[in-house]
Every structure is written in structure tokens, then in C-alpha cells.
Design brief:
single chain, mainly alpha, Rna Polymerase Sigma Factor, Chain: A, 9 helices, 0% strand
Length: 197
């Protein structure tokens, strides 16, 4: 048997220092965006499990393509765009499981901060009404609303993430807000009418 030494062995190449520093730089910039990315994924997929899969795939794609990210541009918009495109591409794949959020799942995730049962009930009813109103929005309106109002993205960030003009973001957001107001007003009117109870 031949003697093996370090000169004759073939080792897999180790990551270069620049690769490691780019990965650390990506981690430093992208990890603070995690909750925003996850929230948007949840609203797109309407499922906790699918949102987690989308977030994981988004971060993987973003890390792999980080060398194409232009320093000085908006990382959050870039990540939202990757997430949106990943979601749209995933809709054609059978492994994604999209389903309507059940009442139990919503109630499990609601914090019960107030010791007053009536207040807890009213908070949950309001939250369910808002959740329902958001879910009834057209997808194009819901995406803009989630990015701008729930995630705090600027019009420019939402426009970049969704690949649409800023004016379209503003008009879709106005329509989404109006639709939610009307939906909540309608629900409040129906709930206050004794004939409907």
C-alpha cells in the first residue's frame, strides 16, 4: 500500500476568506429583516409552514446571489422581490401546501394581554374582522397593503419589491385601505343589527 502524505491527497477546497466575509456581511445585513420577510411570506402563502419554507428559500437564494446585489441599493426591497418571485414560482410546484387560515390557528397566535375576558374577546373579534378583510382583498392590493402598512415599507421599496411603478403602489394601497374600511364598516353594521344576530 502506498504511503499517503499531505502532498498527494486531494482535499476539497475550503471557502476563501472573501467568501466567508461576504457571507458574514450578508448575514449582518439580512438577518435584521427576518421578521418582515417572514410576515410578508405568511401573507402571501397564508400558512405558517409554507411561510417558513418561503423564507428559507428566499434567504438561500439571496445568499447565493448576494454578489449581484448592488451596494447602496435597498436590500429590503431586493429581498422582498426575491420572496415574491419565489412565491410566484412555487405556486406551480406541488410541494407547497396553500390553505385558508383556520380560526384555531389565528386564536392560538393571539396574545392574551388583558385579564378582562370581555376585552380579550373584543380584541380577538376586531383582529379576526381585520384579518378577514385583508384576506378578502385582491392579491395585488393585499401585497401592497402588507408591505406598506404592516411592514412599514416605503412606496419606493414596495414598488421595487413588486416590480411596479410607485403610482401603482399608491393607488393600490388607497384601494386596499378603502376596501378594508368598507368591509369593517359593513361588518360593524351587521353585528349591531339585532336581526342579524
Amino acid at each position: 500500500m502506498p504511503h499517503l502524505n499531505a502532498d498527494t491527497l486531494s482535499f476539497p477546497s475550503l471557502p476563501t476568506a472573501s467568501c466567508l466575509s461576504a457571507s458574514a456581511h450578508f448575514e449582518e445585513l439580512a438577518l435584521p429583516l427576518f421578521s418582515s420577510i417572514h410576515n410578508f411570506a405568511y401573507y402571501l402563502s397564508r400558512s405558517s409552514a409554507d411561510a417558513e419554507d418561503l423564507v428559507q428559500e428566499t434567504y438561500l437564494k439571496a445568499l447565493r446571489g448576494f454578489d449581484t446585489f448592488e451596494p447602496g441599493s435597498n436590500l429590503r426591497s431586493w429581498m422582498f422581490r426575491i420572496l415574491k418571485n419565489t412565491f410566484l414560482n412555487s405556486r406551480t410546484r406541488p410541494f407547497m401546501r396553500f390553505h385558508h387560515i383556520g380560526l384555531e390557528e389565528i386564536l392560538e397566535n393571539l396574545p392574551a394581554r388583558s385579564p378582562d375576558p370581555c376585552e380579550i374577546y373584543l380584541q380577538r373579534v376586531r383582529l379576526l374582522a381585520l384579518q378577514s378583510a385583508i384576506e378578502r382583498l385582491a392579491t395585488v392590493h393585499r401585497n401592497v397593503l402588507v408591505l406598506c402598512d404592516l411592514e412599514g415599507a416605503s412606496y419606493r421599496e414596495a414598488a421595487e419589491a413588486l416590480s411596479i411603478p410607485i403610482g401603482t403602489v399608491m393607488s393600490r394601497l388607497a384601494r386596499a385601505r378603502k376596501s378594508i374600511r368598507e368591509s369593517l364598516r359593513h361588518e360593524a353594521t351587521n353585528n349591531s343589527n339585532p336581526e342579524n344576530n
